[in-house]
Amino acid sequence: MNTTHFEIKTKSKIYQVYIGESLLTNIVDFLDDKPKRVFVITDETVAKLYLETLTQSLKESGVETISEILADGESTKTLDTVFNLYNFLLENEASRSDMIIAFGGGVIGDITGFVASTFKRGLNFLQIPTTLLAQVDSAVGGKTGVNLNGGKNLIGTFYQPSAVIVDVTVLKTLSETDFITGLAEVIKYGVIMDSELLQILIEERNEIVNRESESIIKIVERSLKNKAHIVGLDEREEYGIREILNFGHTIGHAIESSSSYDIVHGQAVAIGMVEEARFSVDMDLLDIQSFETIVSILESYHLPTSIPDDMKFQQLREIVKHDKKIREGVLRIPILVELGKVEMKSIELSSGQDVITSMERNARC
Ligand SMILES: NC(=O)c1ccc[n+]([C@@H]2O[C@H](COP(=O)([O-])OP(=O)(O)OC[C@H]3O[C@@H](n4cnc5c(N)ncnc54)[C@H](O)[C@@H]3O)[C@@H](O)[C@H]2O)c1
Ligand SMILES: [Zn+2]
Question: Which residue of 10, 23, 45 sits with most ligand 1 atoms within 8 Å of its CB, as the best mutation to test the pocket?
Answer without folding.
Answer: 45
